[in-house]
Amino acid sequence: MTLGWAIISTGRHSDTKMAPAINAAAGSTITAIVSRDIDRAKTFANKHGVKIAYDNIDAMLRDPDVNVVYVASPNALHGEHTLKAAAAGKHVLVEKPMALSVNDCRQMIDACDRAGVKLGVGFHLRTHPGHQRLREMVVSGQLGKLSLTTANWGRGSRGLVTPSSRPALQAWWGDLSMVGAGAFMATGVHCVDLMRFVTGRNVTEVIALNDASSTSPLEELVTLTARFDDGSLGTIMTGRRTPDYVGNDVMIYGSEGRAGVRESVNTVLGGTLDIDTQTITACEAFETDPIALYTWQVDAFNNAVEHDLDPPASGMDGLRAAQVTLAMVESAKTGRRVNIL
To answer: Is-above-0.90 flag for pTM?
Structure first.
């Protein structure tokens, strides 16, 4: 079975990660690309071997060869584009953040459920074999009772792209109404989902600090402390003001020891699995690959469609990350703890 994918947006992520990943994955082909500018769409199509270029989403959705729609439009449009795709009977993989409000997330989930189509969210870090090993260790009880989980993703301030220096097509990242929040929307949501994934726990409470202000409402640096539903704690540091990518780790500490993957929180497969428990000591390095995490994400989504399974990250996972993001914004603004569940 070969699934025809359509991509909404010719942006950098679609160009450098997802289009190559869809082409590399088994059982998928890029049937269509959509851009407001038909020339950009045609250029993208020529580069990635796409069957047809569109400048109209509705026209693309009428294409019978399109089975899956990858939504990579600006954050504020994710809900609208997902609802349209579901109404057309297309499966949807929506890029993170799923949406800018919990209500929009619920509408997206309900629309896909009613249409009988799959809804996945682009949390590529779930496909990392090291992160999957951490989840297995938690499930099997090898770490004992969990106490602390940490996840960091600092993008690096050297050569930082500022709102004034962004290319015109990326200007929406500086528009609060389009992006929803600052650095947390780019990297923090991945940390939230990764901690939820490896622990199997939901966040119930957060307290956060960020560097947003009345004159600069889009934060560039965030620290967040979370409480999970088993009583364990978690911390996140994310943003664009650390000097480089050093320390982009996920770590779990429990009563029987610790386990983590160092330098794995990134867009590129890599890092080192580090385990030190009462019964296991291990260290394993992962070979660097620029698109493997995304190729595996596409493979898993194709498999979910073909065999009627849940995608690696579901709509509900996207909603949970949105809840934590909104709680982060509220906590940082008010200086108070915010309850979620």
So the answer is: yes
